[in-house]
Target: HIP1R protein
Amino acid sequence: QELRPKSLDIKQEELGDMVEKEMASTSEAIEDAVRRIEEMMSQARNESSGVKLEVNERILNSCTDLMKAIRLLVTTSTNLQKEIVESGRGAATTQEFYAKNSRWTEGLISASKAVGWGATQLVESADRVVLHTGKYEELIVCSHEIAASTAQLVAASKVKAEKSSRNLARLQECSRNVNEMAANVVASTKSGQEQIEEKDTMDFSGMSLIKLKKEEMETQVKVLELEKRLEGERVRLGELRKQHYVLAGGCDAAEDEEARPAPAPRRGILKKPPIAQKP
Model:
C-alpha cells in the first residue's frame, strides 16, 4: 500500500471528471498567462527604454508566441481525447472508459498538470526578469520543462489514439511548434542576457591602470569560485535525477517484477562422454 502512487487514492469513478477539470484548469492557466504577459509588456514600455526595453519586448514576444502554441496544443489534445473515448468506449459511459483505463487516465492528468504548471512558472520567471529581480536562467529552464511536459502529453495521448487519426497528426504538429517556440524563448533570453551584461559590465573607459588590475584579479577569483560551484551543482543535479528516477520508476518496476514469469529451473550440464581410445 505504501508503494502505490498517491493518485491511486482517487476513486476510479472520479477519474473522468478529473481529466475534464485538469484540461479546463490548464486552459485557464494559459489564458491567464497570456493576459499577464500583455500586462508586463505595457508595464515594460512605461518603465524601461533603450536596450532594456528592446530586450524585454523580445523576450515577452517570444513568451507570448509560446503561450499561443501551448493553447493550441491543449485544445487539440482535448479533441483527440474525446475521439479516443468515443471510439474505444463502445456501450460503456465516458466515466466507465476512464475507470477501465485508469493508468492511462492518470498519465493524461499528470501530463496536463505538468503543461499548466510549466506555463505558470514561465510567466512568473518572465515577470521577475522584466522587473530585474529574477534570473535569465530561470526562463531557459522553464522553456526546457515546457518542451518536456509537452512530449509527455503527446506520448500519453498517442498510446490510445489510432495511427491514422487526424487529431493525432495535428497534436504532433502542435508539439513540434511548441518545441520551436520554446527554443525561440531560450534564444531571445540568451541574446538579451548578453546585451544587458555587455552594456552593464564592459564599460572600462573611466578606470585607472591600478583599478583595472584590481578588477582583473577579482574577476579571476570569481571565475574560480564559479567553476567550483558549477562542479558541485552538477553533482547535486545528478543525484537529484537519480532519486527522481527511483521514485518515478519504483512502482512500475515492482509491477513488472510481479508480472514477469519465474525463470525455469536450470538443468544440469550434460558432460560429453569420454572419447574411446584406439587399441
